[in-house]
Amino acid sequence: MLNWFYFILFVLAFNLGGCSSTSTNVQIQPQSKVSESPNPEALKYFMEGQLYINQGKYAMASVELQNALLIDKNVSTIHLSLADCYWMLKKPDLSIFHMRNAIEIESENQNIKELLAKRFFALKQLNEAENVYLQLSMENPDSIKYILSLAELARLQNNLEEAISYYQKAHNVNPQELSYLETAADLALQLRNESLTIALTQKLILLNPSNLNYINKMIN
Predict the structure, then answer these.
(1) This prediction's pTM
(2) What is the Cβ-side half-sphere exposure of residue 55, based on CA atoms within 13 angstroms?
């Protein structure tokens, strides 16, 4: 009998072109806590749910997937498929609920957390998205993409000082990329923080003294 791990890999490879692709491009792979021997009845309901998903019949798919959960509630992929169905059915609260359940089962799976943050962003729940990215950034302190996501969220919430701090942090992680410092300097100028603008521009000049744009900015 197929175990959950190999079956999940097959379903994800077959079904990622379905409902989840409409909301995000994140590819989710199972990482931990998958049953070695799936319950045959739960597997049957799950497979029927996937068939309905492929046909775009999300309401019917959700019924089958709920039946699967009644039998085996500790399989993250069932929660994720159900979350996608509810997302397509315009029921974001239920979608988020099942995504959180999937994260509880696979706490190390960062792709699920990224997907959750993107859905919060789509719902304009910026504080919730920020909380998820903060967790991801703490778990991956050297990951530029999470720092930049936090910087962008800070900008969108008009918290420019915090955004500047994140862009500086991004530059510290990747000192070769001066665009992060450039953005920080532009935001400092937007804040009319003269001392910070000068400090950041001076740093840019020291790092790239041949760049005339930096020199012109300092003069202006």
Answers:
(1) 0.80
(2) 11
